[in-house]
Every structure is written in C-alpha cells, then in structure tokens.
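testing teh design pipeline on a random one, pls ignore if ur not involved
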C-alpha cells in the first residue's frame, strides 16, 4: 500500500508542477513545451484515475446511500468537475494547437482561446480545493515515506526523491530545448495570409509593436517564479478550505 501511495504522491506532485507551468504559455520554449506537456498531463490524468479506480467505482455506487459522508460525496462531485474542466482544457488546447496539431482549423479561434483560459483558471481553483480536502492523507503519506516509526529521517528516500525530481526537471528542460516549432512553416503561413490582406489598412500601433494583452497578463515566464506564484495561490485556497473542513469534521464528532 505504501509503495502505491508513493507512486501516487510522485505522480500528483509532478502533475501539479507541470500544470502550473502550463498556466504561463511562455515558460521554457513557449508553445512547444506548452502543447507537448499538456498532452503528457492528459495521459497522466488517466493514470491518476486508474490508480484511484476502486474508490471512484465504490463511491459512485454509494452516492445515494445515507451512510456515505458529506465530505466523500462532495469530494466525488469535485472530482467530476475536475475531470470535466481538464477535459475542456485538453480538447480546446488541441483545437487551437499550432505545434502538435497545426492543421486543425481552430488555431485562430478567439472563442476557443477564451474557453481554454476559463477551463484552466477553473481547474486551478478546483485543484486547490482538492488538495485541501486530501491534506491529512498527503501529510500522512509524506511522514510514512520520509520518517521511520522512531521519527528518524530516511536519508535514502530523500536522495531518491531528489533524483526523481532532478530527472523530472531535466526532462522538462530537454523538452524545452529540443522540441521547437517550425519557424519556416509559421513564416510561410504568415506570408500567405499577408498576401490576401495586402490592401487592408495597417493594424493599430500596439499590434505592430507586439503588445498583446493576452501575453502580458501571464506575468513572468521564469519557471521558478511561475511555480512559486501559483503554489502561493493554492496556499490561499487550501488554508481556508482546510480549516472549514476541519471545523465541520469537529462538529460531526461532537454530535456523535
């Protein structure tokens, strides 16, 4: 059981880091990293669901059973919303793709882009609530992984985790450096479009200078700052939800 929980923790932390990096499409090499990593997350989500398959099935069967706790029922509904929002991110991301699926005819669709952002922001909040509801389990697993029953640190495990995450960040860096869009393809496409609009008035000054509000609102593209910023946002969500859930749990125990 502990080994399975270790796999879950590593997968979930990796998913969390990759997801927040995708919240800024300019991180690392921009679109190539953004799109390829987005597809990797899509696969990882199905692995995450597979690892929790028994809980999903058992909870679905008991949804209308009075013996099922309110927290479990809420957590199940939250997971459904998370699945819907993440599916929305993946689908809209594929439709507006310029690197992995460049021939799909939705790349310049502004409605799809806005939907992609809406699903992304909704997922960011939902993940924060999800973490808060499972905070006891997360801390319990971390303690079992890193400490012995006597309370001593497991140095070997710490080194193993450090190596795993070094490999993880190394892989992301390799992806950012080696997976690049075809600049010639973008240039030829741009020239083709310009040829059809040559007689149109010049675009506004802000567009000629490359000042795109959509780009600027993402803030710094430094990976560590992006991770720190979004994990701070999660902390703001997690702390109040955790204490609200803790207070409700205490009230239930008093009633019993």
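output:
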């Amino acid at each position: 059981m502990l080994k399975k929980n270790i796999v879950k923790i590593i997968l979930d932390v990796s998913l969390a880091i990759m997801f927040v990096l995708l919240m800024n499409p300019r991180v690392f090499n921009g679109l190539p990293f953004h799109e390829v990593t987005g597809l990797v997350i899509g696969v990882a989500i199905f692995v995450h669901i597979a690892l929790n398959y028994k809980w999903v099935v058992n909870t679905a069967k008991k949804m209308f059973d009075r013996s099922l706790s309110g927290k479990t029922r809420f957590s199940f509904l939250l997971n459904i919303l998370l699945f819907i929002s993440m599916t929305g991110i993946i689908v809209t991301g594929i439709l507006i793709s310029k690197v992995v699926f460049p021939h799909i005819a939705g790349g310049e669709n502004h409605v799809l882009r806005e939907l992609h952002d809406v699903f992304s922001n909704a997922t960011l909040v939902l993940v924060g609530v999800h973490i808060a509801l499972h905070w006891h389990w997360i801390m319990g697993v971390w303690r079992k992984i890193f400490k012995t029953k006597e309370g001593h640190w497991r140095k070997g495990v710490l080194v193993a985790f450090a190596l795993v995450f070094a490999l993880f960040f190394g892989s992301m860096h390799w992806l950012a450096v080696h997976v690049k869009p075809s600049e010639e393809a973008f240039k030829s496409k741009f020239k083709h479009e310009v040829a059809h609009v040559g007689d149109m008035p010049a675009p506004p000054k802000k567009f000629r200078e490359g000042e795109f509000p959509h780009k600027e609102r993402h803030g710094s593209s430094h990976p560590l700052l992006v991770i720190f910023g979004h994990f701070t946002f999660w902390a703001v969500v997690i702390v109040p939800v955790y204490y609200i859930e803790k207070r409700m749990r205490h009230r239930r125990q008093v009633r019993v």
